[in-house]
What does this fold into?
Amino acid sequence: MKLSVIIVNYNVKHYLEQCLYSVRKASLLLETEIFVVDNASTDGSRDYLLPRFPDVHFIFNSSNAGFAAANNRSLKEARGDFILFLNPDTILPEDCLTKCLDFFLKTRNTGILGVRMIDGAGNFLKESKRAFPSPLASLYKLTGLSYLFPRSRSFARYYLGNLPEQEDHEVDVLAGAFMMIPRSVLEKTGSFDEIFFMYGEDIDLSYRLQKAGFRNHYFSGTTIIHFKGESTGKGSLNYVRLFYKAMNQFVKKHYSGNRARLFIIFIQAGIWSRAIISAAGSLFYRARLSFPAKKKGVRILIVANEKDFTFVEDVLLNGPQRTRILGMVNNDLTPAAKTLGTIEQLPVLVKKYKADELIFCENGLSFKDIISAIQQMPPGIQSKIHASGSDSIVGGKSK
It folds into this structure.
């Protein structure tokens, strides 16, 4: 077995459905096995996913065991020479896995390989490459200096902002959303530390592998979509609590003396700062609900063939969100097709019809084509994805 893909699911069955379709296509030329560990989801994931993916190895936990423990449970059954830990809210291009495996063949002593990640609007996700946390880097991040000087070697140290995103780099930390690791490396260093329930385990594993003499690499040769935090509610008080608790655990495990004490002070300051911001945001949101603005329908272009266009149109018309479907985009320009234009004309069509959102249907397009097209859109345009044969549409703004 060349590759074992391990995905942990918690109440994101539709995201996972789209993810699995993309993983299937990306592994067509590889001897691959796919594991899904479900952490006691309550959204009907089991009944929804089992009949759709009979080729996937499902493990259903009776309780939420956390990210680290769930991955480790599947790792015991995995047979691949390489292990890919993957988030369920990701979409892979068709050549992603083969390119990553080729990188391992060309680069000696690689411990973890991570890739370039974008969100649903095509924005680069800075957590694709990071430095190990330090008191100073955390202070710059906490005070906002890293955002004011995003390319600074010093102020943007946390996200390595001085390193170009379109180039390969040896880095400290790679994101748990996509971590490819040789089995032989994990046998020497161990996998995720289960003291981390959620967050921090990717930093800890990156740290331990580097300490063991392996090199962690950020690979820019392939780009994936990571819709980010759909199963964890990033921005909520609970997220803040879990994230800073994980950072606290990391500091206590690996740092000592004055450095650890200083770091913990910054972490506590971060918790209080984020809690105040979150509480203020909640008050503002409730105030806005008291004075509801006139609802404006979202203007949508659908990139699809006629069959998928009809499916998406039906979903949108029966959904809770007010939408205005502007029309269909594909390369069939016959009069009967009633298309607004070709896929190559998308950036122009978005401006011409003042679209707010795009829905890409995989039928007729590859996932690689979709990821490429999303990055060519004007700023602020959100995108959703519908895989061929799937029963859902997912995006980065709402489930």
Notes: Residues 299 and 324 are 5 Å apart (CA to CA). Residues 298-395 form a domain with the Rossmann fold fold (CATH 3.40.50). The chain has a mean pLDDT of 87.
